[in-house]
Design a protein that fits this description.
The chain is of the alpha/beta class. About 25% of the residues lie in helices and about 25% in strands.
Length: about 220
């Protein structure tokens, strides 16, 4: 993914094994932040160390296991906060069945680095700001992360290129999901905004307007 307006920071869509979820690694110099830390913590550790990166925080679009599997262990190892909207904390133990299905370690015991995040401007690295947007529906505490200076939207599982996210999982709500999609539509983001979905191919706001029948007011 190339930046829209200047050379830094860098946004990379990562497909960590077992390939299932689109994680995003954001770097600025040697500082790094992970969005939706899927996969094994030791694989992320090797990646960070091989690149000489210092992990500063982890952010999560929602609390399903396929978006949080590596987050608790990474947060503990690097002594950094793991941000998840508190409405989704109840999903952490529920996620263990999914983690076992993928052959990943369970998340047992307290997540001591867990921190709440809600809507508003957030500085994730020095000088790098994002707009955290509450988008419940796929889960109670769903979030999107918008980087207006770089034209990047990290959308999680609320919507995909040509459809909406699921609402039949614990805490899902169809009406809330549609309201969240409408909220993003009403932001009238530029057509060339690069959208990273939680799974599958990435898109742009322009593609969503043309191809997604649910992306409307």
């Amino acid at each position: 993914m190339s930046n829209q307006k200047n050379s830094a920071p860098q946004f990379e869509v990562m497909h960590m094994e077992p390939e299932n979820t689109n994680s995003v690694l954001v770097t600025s110099g040697t500082d790094a932040v992970i969005f939706d830390a899927w996969g094994r913590a030791d694989a992320w550790e090797k990646l960070l160390e091989s690149r000489g990166l210092r992990l500063r925080a982890i952010y999560t679009t929602h609390g399903h296991g396929d978006h949080i599997s590596a987050a608790p262990a990474l947060a503990e190892k690097y002594d950094v906060p793991w941000y998840l909207n508190s409405e989704d904390n109840i999903l952490i133990p529920w996620s263990n069945n999914l983690l076992e299905y993928f052959g990943l370690p369970r998340i047992d015991g307290p997540c001591r680095k867990l921190a709440d995040i809600s809507a508003g401007d957030t500085e994730i690295l020095p000088g790098l700001h994002m707009d955290a947007i509450e988008t419940p529906g796929h889960s109670p505490g769903g979030m999107m992360y918008w980087f207006p200076d770089f034209g990047v939207l990290i959308a999680g599982d609320t919507m995909f290129r040509d459809t909406r996210g699921r609402y039949d999982l614990p805490g899902g709500d169809m009406n809330a999901l549609m309201q969240s999609i409408s909220k993003i539509y009403d932001m009238n983001l530029p057509d060339d905004t690069y959208v990273v979905h939680g799974h599958g191919v990435d898109s742009t706001i322009g593609m969503l307007r043309r191809e997604n029948p649910y992306f409307r007011d």
